[in-house]
Design brief:
The complex is a heterodimer of chains A (237) and B (434). Chain A has seven helices and eleven strands. With 237 residues, chain A is of the alpha/beta class. Chain A has one domain: P-loop containing nucleotide triphosphate hydrolases (Rossmann fold). In chain A, helix 6 links the parallel strand 8 and strand 9. The longest helix of chain A has 18 residues. The model of chain A has no long low-confidence stretch (mean pLDDT 87). Chain B is α+β, with helices and mostly antiparallel strands and 434 residues long. Chain B has two domains: 192 residues, no CATH class; 224 residues, no CATH class. In chain B, strands 3, 4, 5, 6, 7, 8, 9 and 10 form an eight-stranded mixed beta sheet that branches. Chain B has a four-stranded antiparallel beta sheet with strand order 2-11-1-12. In chain B, strand 3 and strand 4 form a beta hairpin. Chain B is elongated, with a radius of gyration of 32 Å. The chains are: A alpha/beta (237), B alpha+beta (434). Chains A and B meet through helix 2 and helix 3 of A and helix 12 and helix 15 of B.
């Protein structure tokens, strides 16, 4: 496994929920490798274990067995503080149901990761405005988050995800709550970030169409990888 | 995350549910208001007591009585149940009189500059040429070397060859017809002294009284300490005593009034030594202390009320924050996913508790200062009219700040329970929560 640009890799990754009689094995041994700059779709039906896999890759949860390597380093021995810093600095998150502080302003929502990182007021405001410019919502920075449309909300979330210049964006059903026209805009935004800024994009979805837009699809069923394939040229719509 | 940001956000979060936070703050306010106002009254009383002592002078002045007599007195006041009779202790003479050997022993104690033990002297009344009225009088001896602070005139001359001199309370001076108190200084007043033996057989009290002309050397400002007590010099005291015991055999048991002038630095050790030989000594401070016990008892009761209010308020804080944690489950999950540590999540909820405590005590300080200052004005016009130097409430910044900090700390402690629950939340569960 001497791949020079390996960003995230898993080795015999298992995740078990519950105890004794109610044991449920969500992941049964996953070995994948994601290189820096890739756009990868993790596809599977609900209950397949794809969300569990994403949570583990994003270091939000600990595996029951196996290991996850980030930049070739085993993450299982990292202290909580280091894990928190990694998630804050290296990862960006986009969720299906947005997860925003609805009563707060757009700007404050985007600022959140910077505030957690302990960056000064002026600097974090500048960087948040920059991120909002990327998603073309800089004119709405004063609005309350709850007053935005679904597509705008997801754009704010993307701005929040990129505000710390992350290496990876985890997008969990990013277009699941949006109509197809708005969904396409969001998709374009994410793929542009992948192409232009080289941010690794890991999309978790059951939407075949969205998955095909990624360069690579990893299919999960019953806690195992059933297919791992590159998109054929021309398949993109 | 910076601590400043945590506190700023905590405060903003509080006002998201205005009614709930306001009610919790109100509960804290009740407690802090009570405790702060109490401390201000305490400071006011202490300040006034100190002024009294300063007014009195006589730092090294001690008054003594036999320990048995003191115990009898306190037992009577304290109502300690039936007291067993023993001949030694309860012989009225033995218990109330200072014995010669006690006087001899007392004179040898290190730190006593002057020790005076003179038989008690008592007078019936005081009057002046300016009035027909006669007023009861209670005489105290001014020990050699002691000078009391006078509002007018000087402390009585303690030389044994001096003329009869007395210092009286301003109230008495007014009652004797001197509207302008200063005018009585160096004037002559009349004191009626009974001859005890004659009085047993006299039909009218006036038949056994001798009237003495006495010079008023000075007046004392009204206060708890000088209340009623007039201060006689040695010459007057000796003469009054002669009249009191006129015709009685010299070996008659006489109760002594013992006083001493003591080096102020050694006052505690002198008191301990006197205690050993069976004499209970009281300094000016002690007398003030006895008076203060009553104030303290009242303040303790009010402080208990304040404390109970704070306990209730703490439960309010716990409740408020538990609701807040529940409502913000998703938010906590997001914060954690974005890299916020458990410690910071804990701190952010603790900060909310501390802010509740902060606002509660801030309002407590502001409102108690308003109420306290109004009370000062009202008190000086009504029940404290005669004590112009008595400020009922004094607000000391340091005390108020410490109380505020203690309340914020209590709020923090109350907040630890909900804050712990928040910090233990799993980000994935929290994000799934809809």
């Amino acid at each position: 496994m001497a791949m020079t640009n390996s960003l995230l890799s898993t080795h015999g990754l298992k995740k078990v929920y519950g105890k004794r009689d109610t044991v449920f094995e969500a992941l049964k041994g996953i070995d994948i490798n994601i290189n820096a700059g890739e756009s990868v779709a993790i596809i599977g039906k609900s209950g397949s274990g794809k969300s569990t896999l994403m949570h583990l890759l994003a270091l939000l949860d600990k595996p029951s067995a196996g290991e996850i390597r980030l930049n070739g380093k085993n993450t299982s021995k990292l202290k909580n503080r280091k894990l928190n810093r990694l998630r804050n600095k290296e990862f960006g998150f986009v969720f299906q149901s947005f997860f925003m502080n609805a009563n707060d302003s757009v700007l404050n929502n985007v600022i959140l990761p910077l505030k957690i990182a302990g960056i000064g007021r002026r600097e974090r405001r500048r960087r948040a405005m920059e991120a909002l410019k990327v998603v073309e919502l800089d004119d709405k920075f004063k609005n309350k988050a709850k007053d935005l449309s679904g597509g705008q909300k997801q754009r704010v979330c993307i701005a929040r995800a990129i505000v710390n210049n992350p290496k990876v964006i985890f997008a969990d059903e990013p277009t699941g709550n949006l109509d197809s026209a708005t969904g396409e805009k969001i998709e374009k935004l994410l793929f542009d970030l992948n192409r232009e800024k080289g941010i690794t994009l890991i999309v978790v979805t059951h939407d075949e169409e969205l998955a095909q837009k990624c360069k690579r699809q990893i299919r999960i069923a019953d806690g195992l990888v059933v297919a791992d394939e590159k998109t054929k040229k021309g398949a993109k719509k | 995350m910076k601590v400043v940001d945590i506190f700023r956000d905590a405060n903003a979060n509080l006002w998201r549910s205005k009614l709930r936070s306001s009610l919790t703050i109100l509960a804290i306010f009740v407690g802090s208001f009570t405790i702060i106002l109490n401390s201000a009254i305490n400071a006011g009383v202490n300040d006034w007591m100190n002024k009294q002592i300063e007014n009195m002078g006589g730092e090294g002045y001690l008054e003594m009585m036999p320990t048995e007599a003191y115990d009898t007195l306190t037992n009577m006041m304290g109502n300690n149940g039936p007291q067993e009779y023993t001949e030694d202790k309860d012989n009225a003479n033995a218990s109330t009189y200072i014995k010669d050997e006690q006087i001899e022993a007392a004179k040898k104690i290190d730190g006593i500059k002057v020790f005076n033990a003179l038989p008690n002297s008592s007078a019936d009344y005081i009057t002046s040429k300016k009035t027909d009225k006669r007023y009861r009088i209670n005489l105290n001896l001014v020990v050699e070397g002691i000078t009391f602070d006078m509002s007018n005139g000087v402390s009585p001359n303690t030389d044994k060859n001096a003329g009869y001199e007395i210092a009286i309370n301003e109230d008495i001076a007014k009652a004797l017809g001197y509207e302008n108190v200063a005018d009585i200084v160096d004037q002559t007043v009349q004191i009626a002294v009974p001859s005890n033996l004659k009085c047993y057989t006299a039909i009218k009290r006036s038949e056994c009284q001798t009237i003495l002309d006495v010079k008023v050397s000075g007046t004392q400002a009204p206060g708890i300490l000088s209340m009623g007590g007039s201060r006689a010099n040695l010459a007057l005291w000796t003469r009054v005593n002669e009249i009191n015991y006129e015709g009685m055999p010299a070996e008659t048991n006489r109760s002594y009034q013992a006083t001493a002038d003591v080096d102020p630095d050694k006052i505690d050790s002198v008191k301990a030594e006197l205690e050993k030989i069976g004499l209970k000594a009281m300094s000016v401070d002690d007398e003030v202390g006895m008076f203060k016990v009553f104030f303290d008892a009242i303040l303790i009761v009010f402080n208990i009320f304040g404390g109970i209010a704070l306990v209730a308020a703490s439960i309010g804080i716990i409740n408020t924050l538990f609701m807040s944690v529940q409502e913000r489950t998703k938010e906590i999950g997001l914060d954690k996913a974005l890299g916020m540590s458990n410690g910071k999540v804990f701190l952010s909820f603790s900060a909310e508790a501390i802010m509740l405590g902060f606002w509660g005590s801030l309002f407590g300080i502001v409102v108690s200062m308003i109420v306290g200052n109004i009370a000062n004005v009202v008190a000086l016009e009504t029940f404290l009219k005669d004590f112009p130097t008595f400020h009922l409430t004094i607000f000391e910044p340091l005390t108020m700040i410490s109380i505020a900090f203690i309340i914020m700390f209590i709020a923090f402690l109350a907040g630890t329970l909900p804050a712990r629950r928040a910090s233990k939340k799993n980000p994935i569960d929290a994000l799934r929560y809809e």
